[in-house]
Write a structure and sequence with these properties.
By secondary structure, this protein is of the alpha/beta class. It contains 11 helices and 14 strands. It has an 8-stranded parallel β-barrel with strand order 7-8-9-10-11-12-13-14, surrounded by 7 helices. The protein has a 4-stranded antiparallel β-sheet with strand order 2-3-1-4. A hairpin with a 5-residue loop joins strand 2 and strand 3. The chain is elongated and about 80 Å long. The structure holds phosphoenolpyruvate and manganese (II) ion.
């Protein structure tokens, strides 16, 4: 909090203001405010106390624009419950499944592998936001029904993407958690629409979004009424073509300082190179992620989308075991 002092305050009055801040429990530091006026930076004191100190013209609240999702001094991570699975609590959560739902057998094999890997959420796309209009766009409503059935057979929760505001109701009928993909992170109409309903939201980072932009996107959802949001780091665009994206793991501790929302990491899209997904998933857990999302496919070579980055069932099960080992080391 910044206290801008009255114009032309004499030295004694400034000292008295500093003493008042100290008596209120704060630690004042002198600053020059915009326009050359003297100001005091005071940390650790309630705004109401500071505003009443003689000599204080007004206070500047340094709190961020994303006030609903900002970290709160008196609170830890906001735990998001997805059909009984707590994300942001003490236990690391794994979400896994195919990039796109293709057919029942593919989903059944994926769901079985997900369970064996220790996953609690089945993640699959029924509506796919593909870069090319000529690529497979997903099975649509049929994909939603297949997801629900496979998840119910294996006691998993469903997370799937919604692409447009008008489809939110229909997707929410089948899904336990709605995903907003990278390409839609700044689609404010869609953000508001998922904010007006009660299913938790998985908000992926835009491919060139700053943390501030991402948190403000989350703020749209929270401001519309839904604070059950999990942020998902999925890599950012960069110059290097060796990987699909640059997985920004520093985002995990940096977000933790800024927001109360739980944080997931998606190394599948974040790296896009199968051999690097396991090590980066482990690194994400070490960095403090609350959840990991990975793509798998029973036969990646035949996948209709993102097969190059899909883990086989055996690789997924191995990843699950390694995640648990690292999670134990970091106390999750
Ligand atoms: C996805 O998760 O299936 C996906 C398309 O990812 P992103 O939105 O991060 O590109
Ligand atoms: Mn994908």
């Amino acid at each position: 909090m910044i206290l801008v002092l009255d114009d032309g305050l004499d030295a004694e009055a400034v000292t008295r203001a500093e003493e008042a801040v100290r008596r209120a429990g704060g630690d004042p530091r002198r600053l020059t405010a915009e326009g050359g006026r003297l100001a005091l930076e005071a940390t650790g004191v309630a705004r109401e106390l500071l505003a009443r100190i003689p000599g204080v013209a007004f206070t500047l609240d340094g709190s961020p624009a994303y006030r609903r999702v900002a970290k709160r001094a008196d609170e830890g991570t906001h735990v998001v419950h997805v059909r009984g699975v707590a994300i942001g609590g003490p236990t690391l959560v794994l979400m896994a499944g195919p990039c796109a739902v293709e057919h029942e057998a593919q989903l059944e094999d994926s769901a079985r592998a997900a369970v064996q890997a220790g996953a609690r959420l089945l993640r699959g796309g029924a509506f796919k936001p593909r870069t090319s209009p000529y690529s497979f766009q997903g099975l649509g409503d049929l994909g939603l029904r297949l997801l629900r059935q496979a998840a119910d057979r294996h006691d998993l929760a469903v997370v799937t993407e919604v692409l447009e505001p008008g489809a939110v109701g229909a997707v929410a009928e089948y899904a336990d958690m709605l995903q907003i993909g990278s390409r839609n992170m700044q689609n404010s109409a869609l953000l508001r629409a998922v904010g007006r309903q009660s299913r938790p939201v998985l908000l992926k980072r835009g491919m060139s979004a700053t943390l501030e932009e991402w948190l403000l996107a989350a703020e749209y959802i929270a401001d519309a009424g839904n604070e059950n949001i999990v942020l998902c780091e999925r890599g950012v665009r960069t110059f290097d073509t060796a990987s699909r994206n640059l997985l920004d793991l520093a985002a995990v501790p940096l977000l933790r300082e800024r927001t109360r929302l739980p944080i997931a990491v998606d190394p599948s899209h974040g790296v896009g190179v199968r051999s690097a997904i396991l090590p980066m998933a482990l690194a994400a857990v070490a960095a403090g992620a609350d959840a990991i999302m990975v793509e798998c496919h029973p036969d990646p070579g035949t996948a209709r989308s993102d097969g190059f980055q899909a883990l086989t069932p055996d690789e997924l099960i191995h990843l699950g075991a390694r995640l648990r080992a690292v999670a134990a080391v970091v106390g999750r």
